[in-house]
Amino acid sequence: MQLISGTYWYARGKDKWVRLGREFGPALVKYAGIVGAKPEVRTVQHAIAHYIEWATTRRKPIKPATLEGYKNSSKNLIPVFGHLELADIEPQHVYQYLIERGDVQANRDRSLLSATFTHARRIGAFKGDDPTKGLEYRNDESPRQRYIEDGELAVLLNAASAKLSCILNFSYLTGLRQSDVVKVKLADITAEGIRAVTNKTDAPVTIEWSDELRACVAEANRLWTRAGRIFLFESMPKGKHAKRGPGPYTTSGLRSLWRTARNKTSVKNVRLNDLRRKAGSDKETDQEAADLLTHKDTKVTRRHYRAKPKKAQPAR
Length: 316
What we know:
Elements: E1 2-4, E2 7-10, E3 18-21, H1 24-35, H2 44-57, H3 64-81, H4 91-101, H5 104-122, H6 150-159, H7 162-174, H8 178-181, E4 193-197, E5 204-208, H9 211-223, E6 234-235, E7 247-248, H10 251-262, H11 274-281, H12 286-293, H13 298-305
Helix pairs in contact: 1-2, 2-3, 2-5, 3-5, 4-5, 6-7, 7-9, 7-11, 11-12, 12-13
C-alpha cells in the first residue's frame, strides 16, 4: 500500500494499481480485503485508523462532530507517534506531548489516543497498560465567556440576509446546537412548541412557545414556501452542489453564511455558537438554562453557558 499525493493505492507491480482512497482507515480495510488478510494493527497509526473505522461503522456510529474532532487529532498524533509500535509508547511520551503542545487541543488528542489504546486492548492488538492513564495532568481549559449583548445581536441580525437572520434568531431563542437547528422539520412544530432530539446527547426536549418564537417560525414559513418542504429552514444548493437538491442546510454552509454577515459588522470576537451561550445566559436561573440547553448537570451550564455580566450596586 502506497501513499501518493494524498491518496492510498494498492501497488501491484506492472498491473493496474487499485485506488484505496484518501482516508487511511478505510484504505487499510480495502487493502486487507484485496490481499485476503485482516487489517494489521501494530503501530499507533494502524490502531488509530482501525479505531476510527470501527467507530464509524458500528451499530450506533459516533456523531459527525466527534468524528471530525478525531480526524483533526489524528493529524496531530500520527506525525509524532504514528510510526511507533503500540507497546513502545510510555506515559512519559504522552506527558511530554501534552507539555510541548501546551494547549486544549492536546487534551483532545490525548482522549483519542486513550480511546485507541482501549480499542486495541479489546481486539487483542495490545496487552499492556494504557500509557495515557494516571498522568494526573491536563492543559488548562478556560471556558469561553463571550456574551453577545442585545445590541450586538441586533447588529448581527440586521447585517444578515432575511433568511439567515431568521435562522440566527431561532438559534438564539431555542438555544439549540447548530446541528440541531438545521434538522428541525415542519413535523417537529406542535401545539406545545418545538420538539427536538439533540444530536449530541439524544436528549428529547420540547421548547414551549413564546410570542417571539411563534413570530420567528411564522417568518420562516413566509420565507421558505416550496411545496413539499420538509425542513423548517431549507437550503437550495447552487453550482456544483445543485445536484443535492433542496434539503437542510449543512452546518459548514451555515457557518459560511454567518462569517460573511458577521464580517460586515464591527462586532468582534463572536462565533456562531455564542448564540447558544447567550440563550443560556439570558435565562433567570441555572436550572432554567440547563433545561433549555438539555444539560443533565447544571455545573456544565454554569461553567460554560452563564456568561452574562453581573450587575452590582455602588458602595454609596
